[in-house]
Amino acid sequence: MAKPRVHEIAKEIGITSKELLAKLGEMGEYVRGPSSTLEAPVVRRVREAFGGADETPAAPAAKKPAPKAAPKPAETTPAAPAAQQSAPAATPGTPEPTAPPAAEAPRPAAPRPAPRPGPAAPEARPATPGRGGAAPRPRPAGGSAAPAARPSATPGPRPSTPGPRPGGGSAPTPGPRKPGAPRPGNNPFAPAQGMGTQQRRPNNRPDGGQRPGAGAARPGQSDNRMPRPGGTGGLPGMPRPNPAMMPKTANAAIGSRPSRPGGGGPGRGRGGQGGGGNRPGGTGGPPMGGPMGGRGGGRGRGGTQGAFGRGGSAGKRGRKSKKQRRQEFDQMEAPSIGGVRVRKGDGQTVRLRRGASLTDLAEKIGVEAASLVQVLFHLGEMVTATQSVADDTLEVLGAELDYNIEVVSPEDEDRELLESFDLEFGEDIGDEDDLEARPPVVTVMGHVDHGKTKLLDALRNSNVQAREAGGITQAIGAYQVETEVDGNERKITFIDTPGHEAFTAMRARGAKSTDIAVLVVAADDGVMPQTIEALNHAKAADVPIVVAVNKVDKDTADPTRVRGQLSEFGLVPEEYGGDTQFVDVSAITGQGLENLLESIVLTADAALDLRANPDMPAQGVAIEAHLDKGRGPVATVLVHRGTLRIGESIVAGSAHGRVRALINDQGQNVDEAPPSMPVQVLGLTSVPGAGDNVLVVDDDRMARQIADKREARMRAAQQAKASRRKTLDQLFEQLEKGETQELLLILKGDGAGSVEALEDALSKIEVGEEVSLRVIDRGVGAITETNVSLAAASKAVIIGFNVRPTPHAAQLADRENVDIRFYSVIYSAIDEIEAALKGMLKPIYAEETRGHAEVREVFRSSKFGNIAGCMVTSGTIRRNAKARLLRDGVVVADTSIASLRREKDDATEVREGFECGLTLSNFNDIKIGDVIETYEMVEKERE
Ligand SMILES: Nc1nc2c(ncn2[C@@H]2O[C@H](COP(=O)(O)OP(=O)(O)OP(=O)(O)O)[C@@H](O)[C@H]2O)c(=O)[nH]1
């Protein structure tokens, strides 16, 4: 059963393999090489073509039309030839998709290319009919052909495929395809017609893939289809009339595109129906309503097969599963939102990360991202498919489509991220026995001017520990004081940033940095609005409150009143039977400070279980961070659990690094920081944000990976925010104002010092108020992909000072068109950037009127809208020129000349005194008497 190979047949015929391959090519058979095998029908056709006897039994000589025809179709079905011819004929008319097959020349009408309806065509048709499929053939007409084709084709071919196919049905049918030259596969339309399919099937050729459309049609598969009973009749396609299919998704929606010439022919009209319409081949299909239409239409060439397959046989190809079909059907019935058809959901929950794009959503709900873009557009927002979209926008869109969009919170997302590294943040490892008491962390809040800062200073200065150590307290964002309670030395950590805003901002970032709130109320002023606000913030965070009634040294102080006032807000003093500690203090005299410390400790003991496992990789929160000259990024970390040590790899938000040094609140270097101890951490590669969580991980690599992922996520979230902010209105506003231009820079240097120095120097550049410079990121080390992505997203320029980009970063920069400038001398960097800034000074433009035209007539055109018949009354009117439409001297529209005609010809310019016809971009409401004024914005020299 071995199939003959090309070189064998070539030898048999007496030609070279190359010649035979060329001939096969002409016949539309794409065979890979001399050792490729050939299917029997092909062999037969080849022999015929070379005057040999047709050995194939199946192929009834009769059918085969002329030698010419013989070739192609044969592939598949020997018998088919004749039939196919018909098909081909039809094809001719149609445009050729791929057309490689052109070669088929032999076929009547030079298959594909030629639209010409070969004489053969007609004949062919007839043939088809016979097969049952006849009717369909309508193709001849060309467009309509499609439909017809399919049916016929299908039917015909299949049956014919006697040989190969089992039930081929009309086994005898000579190779239908042949004739028409344009084998289905080759024929662009084929898909629609179904011819293609068949052919493919028939062709079991190994090389099937080569066929244009054929790829899919594996021989075997084809066969399968054929056999199908239903299919056989030739109406294979017909059966499936399933309209649903036609409308393939996207196409369906749009559906109406006019059909391509080829495909559409007659059927076109219908084309609209199915998405198929659009496709060349497809078009035809739909009309038929037939089965094929559906498929073909939707998938385009390749798809065709599937389409047919269905009808005929097995859907094995798998082109479309039932589910897919179902989807298509759904889609077809999908409601139209703003003219866009998008399949709706059923209230399902779809989880999306913050900053997800429409493409992400589209993937999850199985629709085209482009449709979502359109739907969103109709909902009033313009975003691209890949742009990050704001949470609420996603939710609104989801609601519109009947999906419950769940935007995964940053906290959840971060938890998932850490989990992927087998890390867990926020929990102590081990059991009860591993836990040890830790100092409470306190935040001081209260109304403005009630003495928060003063109190924090007083507490710090009263710090016994500091005094004894002789250290100088350092403002590192937090400090610890010691106090003796019941004979025990107890520590308390104060966060040095007073105010509930900072407290809440951190909390909003998921950082639980405070155990107890000290609410400062000036005794002379009493409870004030921000006192209540602070109170509410503390309550919301479920943090116990200690009230410091301050300024009791003042004559006007009335501590009792404060107690009474706060009682009304639920803070009842212990002395009144409540459970809130009130302490009278004076930040000035130091009165009551020790009592305050004691109350804090007692409250912590009474209300909280402040314990942590000190023997685990440290976890905490960055409460402050900045870029220090010389030391690089410095972060003050409050350790929550575990003990932070020098040399450990840490990740802090999207920053990472290895702990190079730890400095306590007295400026002393320490080797480790246990729970609740604030320390400055040196060694990070970038500056984390306040509130970022900090954790020690196994190694630098893991730290970097986590940091990079967080960075990417943050960027996406930022883009989402930014994108939301940029409405058209705002854009216009910006344009109109044109006041400021900003040069965004990302600085990368070989050391924190040089980066600092560069930033410093840059900040001193001044070229006027119109332009400014902003460093949006800086760092030490090579320019990374992260830097480039940020630059691309922000349209920033990267300055590399004695550093180079990594290979990947360089490639990305190329791709994204990111400008990277390298310097090794700080002054040349400054000079160049200064020049760049000057170059950004907006050019000055002035408007110059070019011409006027008066509307004398308005012609309505279904194709172009309203066309203004004008007389140019001054200057010239140029196509594409900016234009205003004035009505009674009032500007009704500011647009441009979309098209311009003089008489019946397109014109680029029409001068004064001539008549012209024109249309305006996006403006249709033209009336007689309107005046169209064209103008140009001309750049003027700056002085
Ligand atoms: N007499 C007296 N004055 C105080 C006391 N505490 C603070 N002050 C004064 O009150 C004023 C405000 O004190 P701050 O510590 O700046 O108050 P704050 O609450 O931090 O103010 P903001 O930072 O503006 O919210 C300053 O002039 C302090 O000197 C105190 O106990 N007694």
UniProtKB/TrEMBL annotation:
Renumbered to this chain, the Low complexity biased-composition regions fall at 55-93, 121-153, 205-221
Any Pfam family hit: EF-G_D2
Molecular function terms from GO: GTP binding; GTPase activity; translation initiation factor activity
Ranges for the region named Disordered are: 49-334
The places in or outside the cell where this protein is found are: Cytoplasm
**Alphabetized PROSITE patterns for the sequence:** G_TR_2
- Which InterPro entries does the entry link to? EF-G-like_DII, EFTu-like_2, IF2_II, IF2_N, P-loop_NTPase, Small_GTP-bd, T_Tr_GTP-bd_dom, TF_IF2_bacterial-like
- Chain intervals with Gly residues compositional bias: 261-315
Q: What is its main location?
A: cytoplasm
Chain intervals with Basic residues compositional bias: 316-325
Compositional bias segments (type: Pro residues): 108-120, 154-165, 173-182
UniProt cross-references to CDD domains, sorted A to Z? IF2_eIF5B, IF2_mtIF2_II, mtIF2_IVc
Where, by residue number, does GTP bind? Answer: 446-453, 496-500, 550-553
What keywords does the record list, in alphabetical order? Answer: Cytoplasm, GTP-binding, Initiation factor, Nucleotide-binding, Protein biosynthesis
Per UniProt, residues of the Tr-type G domain are 437-608
Per the record, GO CC terms? cytosol
Q: Which family does it belong to?
A: Belongs to the TRAFAC class translation factor GTPase superfamily. Classic translation factor GTPase family. IF-2 subfamily.
Task of the protein: One of the essential components for the initiation of protein synthesis. Protects formylmethionyl-tRNA from spontaneous hydrolysis and promotes its binding to the 30S ribosomal subunits. Also involved in the hydrolysis of GTP during the formation of the 70S ribosomal complex.
What is the protein name for this chain? Answer: Translation initiation factor IF-2
What organism is the protein native to?
Tessaracoccus flavescens
Give the gene name: infB
